[in-house]
Amino acid sequence: MSDFVLCIRNEGYPASLIVGKVYRRLPDPEAEARGMVRILDEDDAEPDGYLYPAFMFVPVELPEEARRVLMGA
Fold it and tell me: What's this model's pTM, rounded to 2 decimal places?
């Protein structure tokens, strides 16, 4: 899966996820094996990200400049 995902639904998480927003995905093979994805958002309180159902996102490829900005480089 890509380093970035686009939120396509937020049922059950309307305060946490914004439909149409691109989120950084953190690798988590254990979570992915269970149909989940680990997302890093702008909340610095949780540097390990949050787990959400994978069906709520689609992978996206971004131009290099956008990747650098979103990766904090």
Answer: 0.86
